[in-house]
Amino acid sequence: MTTPPPSSTAHGGGRHLTRIAAPEGVAPGTGYSHVVWGTGRFVAVSGQCALDEKGEVVGEGDPAAQARQVFENLRRCLAAAGAGFEDVVKLTYFVTDVAHLPAVRAARDEAIAPHLLPASSAVQVAALFRPELLLEVEAFAIVPAAC
């Protein structure tokens, strides 16, 4: 078996990220890339929860509403660093119930094109820092050094 051709994104006139959905000998992932690498400036975004700009919970008890707010917060944080979802190489999901993952994936799919999916991990946790929060997502990105 040969490695499928990598999917790369163009940024600033040149490629800076390479994604491999299924390396040789590894079962293809559904909804993520197994390997992502690139060159440029590293950006780490702290875990984002469903808090609005006033620090109030959005969508209490509603995983879909919380996931949409989380991805909006991630978008804003990435933009502050000169990055976008196309630059994300890794997402880590922390959910209080794995049953929330379909809602999280739906929000992710609204934010990230299917050919640009980053590497990812999902972990069920006992609780987050506020009991009404259902999920938290952190992101790592790489932007071209010229950004």
Report on this model:
Helix content is 20%, strand content 32%. It is of the alpha+beta class. A hairpin with a 2-residue loop joins strand 1 and strand 2 (14-20).
What is this entry, summarized?
This protein has 147 residues and is α+β, with helices and mostly antiparallel strands.
Give the topology, please.
Blueprint: E1 7-11, E2 14-20, E3 35-38, E4 41-48, H1 63-80, E5 88-95, H2 101-111, E6 119-124, E7 135-143
Parallel strand pairs: 5-6
Antiparallel strand pairs: 1-2, 2-3, 4-7, 5-7
Helix pairs in contact: 1-2
Features:
alpha+beta, three-stranded antiparallel sheet, 20% helix, 32% strand, disordered N terminus
Ranges with pLDDT <50 over ≥5 residues?
Answer: 1-5
Mean pLDDT score: 91
What's the Cα radius of gyration?
A: 16 Å
* Largest beta sheet: strand ordering: 4-7-5-6
The fraction of residues assigned to DSSP E strands is: 25-35%
Number-wise, the strands total 7
The main pleated sheet reads as: 4 strands, mixed
User: In percent, how helical is the residue content?
Assistant: 10-25%
